[in-house]
Amino acid sequence: MITFQSFSQRLANGQLKNTSAVDEENLGVICPEYYGTILFLTNQGLVDLSTRFPLFKSQVDLTFVDGQNIYPLTEVNVGGFLTSTVEEPFTDDEFVKILDVFDAEGVRHTTNTNGHILTPSFNTLRFTDAKIKEFTETASPDPARIRIRYQKKHPVLLSAGSINLPPNLETALQLFVASLYISHMGGPDHSAKGDSYYAAYLRHIGEDESKDLSTTSEIHEDSSKFAERGFV
Q1: Which of these ranges, 44-48, 113-117, 151-155, 168-172, has the smallest mean pLDDT?
Q2: Pairing label, strands 124-127, 117-121
Q3: pLDDT score for 229
Q4: Which helix H or strand E contains 149, and what residues bound it?
Q5: Closest C-alpha to 229, from 62, 103, 82, 59
């Protein structure tokens, strides 16, 4: 984990060293008037990385409703058929995609494999009657419900906050921010330099993915049982 202040200093001493973003009288420091721009671009990079890689995962519970087969995973449904916790609140802004589901015994079920659990859209689940019956029998005598594991974005970064990325992806984030900042400076030279940094960014994350350098651990099966997290 690295603070935004330290991250901006890396940029000032590295990729942005010879740009107008760096204070000429205080080398290694981003000029105050560009601080907000660098923060904005850093948040863009965090969204890009945390949607490309499953770095952050959370869980939400779904209780089946009689006669309903389609369930949108949206914030408005929390308190209805969706249940989240104070420790792991479900928000539309952070949600990326559904990863998998677990029944009441903690057994994992994948989506889009046999037609019984489908994702007609990125945040919607559709179940066949047969699958709902299976989940109902597994949960009996408790209400029929499942636990959904989903990928979410990096929290929005504030100027006094910290970046929570695997060390290898901190460099990728620097390349992403530099590529956008320099490209936005205008002119063919800046466009070419920005494109060069973005190409380096893509190579860096491609290598990270091929070597599996930033994989996060899976949620243990036991944590997917309803006896956990105070749901029962």
Answers
A1: 113-117
A2: antiparallel
A3: 46
A4: strand 145-152
A5: 59
pLDDT tens digits, 65-99: 999 999 999 999 999 999 999 998 999 999 999 99
Model confidence over 150-197: pLDDT tens digits? Answer: 999 999 999 999 999 999 999 999 999 999 999 988 888 999 999 999
Cα–Cα distance, 230 to 83 (Å, whole number) = 11
Eight-state DSSP code of residue 229: T
Distance CA 137, CA 123 (A): 26
Measured CA to CA, the distance from residue 104 to residue 55 in angstroms comes to 25
In angstroms, how far is the first alpha carbon of the chain from the final one? Answer: 34
| Tokens of residue 193, six digits | 């330099």
Q: How many residues does the chain have?
A: 232
**In 3-state terms, what secondary structure has residue 115?**
coil
> What is the chain's alpha carbon radius of gyration, rounded to the nearest angstrom?
22
**pTM score of the predicted model:** 0.86
Q: What's the rounded Cα separation, in Å, for the pair 63 and 74?
A: 14
Six token digits for residue 214 = 């930033």
- As a whole number of angstroms, the distance between CA 175 and CA 155 comes to 20
Cα-Cα-Cα-Cα dihedral sign, residues 217, 218, 221, 226: positive
Alpha helices in the chain (DSSP H): 4-13, 32-52, 129-139, 167-183, 188-211
